[in-house]
Amino acid sequence: MTAALDILKTVYGYDAFRGPQADIVAHVIEGHNAFVLMPTGGGKSLCYQIPALVRPGMGLVVSPLLALMADQVTALRQAGVRAAALNSDLPWEERRLLWRDIRAGGLDLLYVAPETLLRPDVLELLDSVKLSVIAIDEAHCLSQWGHDFRPSYRQLDAVAQRFADTPRMALTATADAPTRAEILSHLAIAETDAFIAGFDRPNIRYAIEEKDNPRAQLKAFLKRHEGESGIVYCLSKRKTEETAAWLQSLGYDALAYHAGMDKTAREANQLRFQYGDAVIMVATVAFGMGIDKPDVRFVAHIDLPGSIEAYYQETGRAGRDGLPSDALMLYGYEDIALRSRFIEDSEAPEPRKRMERQKLDALLGLAETAGCRRQVLLSYFGDHGAPCGNCDTCAEPPELFDGAIAAQKALSCIYRTGERFGQAYIVDVLLGVDNERIARLGHDRISTFGIGAEHDNRTWRAILRQLIALRLVDVDLSGHGGLSIAPAGRDFLRERPALMLRAPAPPRARRPKAASGAARSAVADVDQELFQALRRKRAEIARAQSTPPYVIFHDRTLIELVSARPTSPAEMAKAPGVGEAKLERYGAAFLAVIAEHG
């Protein structure tokens, strides 16, 4: 481990490993396989990069996206590591020169997409190369039950067999117990070679709100993140473009990203996001995996994501640098109905549909919990923790009430109106609203008309949303959102069990404070001028090199420089993230800025 620690300091600029990194690195250096589950931002890449640099030969890294490979290669080269990516976009002459370097032992790490790696000519060429490590990143893509399933990942077992004497690693931040078992089995990695570092991202503040006025809610959320980069996830391509245009009209540097866009435009927007300091990407789930931007300060879902795994991975794109970040999710009963319809209308076999229903139920449980969000999130992955104090339900515990009678009234009203009307109409009947449609249909004369006067409109909406989440009520989207009583709802009416429901928060309730200005707030007010000057210098260098600013130094490194105010290269080298190559390349420029603000 002496060599590993030396590389950690001289190349990456860190004095010590974090968490289980040291055990994983030592395990792989000794020639063992490893499965690594570690939260986003926990340092997974070091777990394979350092063994690849210590062991003889070239490290081979399988990665699902070109953007991720390009990001990793750029960062490694900045640190003085000989790294390259092999992909289908590489011109023939560059590919020839790359293979010449590989054969000559001139490369430390080679990144490759699974589709490229599995080509017979690539495998044959690699047969003649000494490999130090084979690392399969984003390994959850292998699971046929996962939300990011990639068929090509299923074929990587052939690579493991072909290079059986090379230590292989499977790494991911998102894998529940069945997915973990599938990865281990498929890649023939023993359970004794598994390292589970947990799922907790304590720097992320989770909040979930009823979708009331989505644009107003998003606007208020973004107001707390002025001058910061973030991601806004939408369900549809159209909504993505409309939301981006609306944010642009408010003065934000907002971009759209979805699979239906022209490839050139999509890639240009991704680069602007990666290189920018205050860019908002409005995207479908087509965007995100492999985005290594560490200073994403917020992730907002204005539509319900597909599962807890998807939610965890998408929110995990915030705060990769460990600084405080925010995750907001908005959802309503229409979201539940739409997600349910996606499942039922799919051509998937029934076992797959059953699992998707269970995943949706788990997500709705997270959305409707009255307890700590983080505890629910962690327990889904088999992890545990005390109440976090850093989510909306911890900051402002929701009020619970005995909802059995309210549920009976709502279900009775749905039944007596014919099980064909939507939420708004059912609420109007419960409240006894005097309108022409209710009178024309004669629903002002039924027994449930006006029996819900004890609750207001918002409370009844919340009750109906929870009944849908509990699968007591079904929603027929093809029938314009008509509500009907589900089989479990009929059982409920017959058995009349106890039922505790969440009361909606008052419209003007105090919101838990967001992690606003996270990076800036980590620096004392008197140091703001120096911090911003260092950021400007970093941006200037990055522009000159056509690289993202965070590849030069992370915000966390700049914060340490502001705090320590080094006056010499030796002092600057003590800051985390300042390795020998970066110190030699950028030390003088940053020391000069610090001296100017002395």
TrEMBL record:
EC number(s) given by UniProt: 5.6.2.4
Broad enzyme group: isomerase
Domain Helicase ATP-binding: 25-193
Name assigned to this protein: DNA helicase RecQ
UniProt cross-references to Gene3D superfamilies, sorted A to Z: HRDC domain, P-loop containing nucleotide triphosphate hydrolases, Winged helix-like DNA-binding domain superfamily/Winged helix DNA-binding domain
Swiss-Prot/TrEMBL keywords: ATP-binding, DNA damage, DNA recombination, DNA repair, DNA-binding, Helicase, Hydrolase, Isomerase, Metal-binding, Nucleotide-binding, Zinc
PANTHER family (UniProt xref): ATP-DEPENDENT DNA HELICASE Q1, DNA HELICASE RECQ FAMILY MEMBER
Pfam families, per database record: DEAD, Helicase_C, HRDC, RecQ_Zn_bind, RQC
Swiss-Prot/TrEMBL catalytic activity: Couples ATP hydrolysis with the unwinding of duplex DNA by translocating in the 3'-5' direction
Gene encoding the protein: recQ
Native organism: Camelimonas fluminis
Lineage: Bacteria, Pseudomonadati, Pseudomonadota, Alphaproteobacteria, Hyphomicrobiales
Helicase C-terminal domain mapped to chain residues: 217-361
Cofactors required: Zn(2+); Mg(2+)
GO molecular function (one): helicase activity
Family: Belongs to the helicase family. RecQ subfamily.
Stretches assigned to the HRDC domain: 524-598
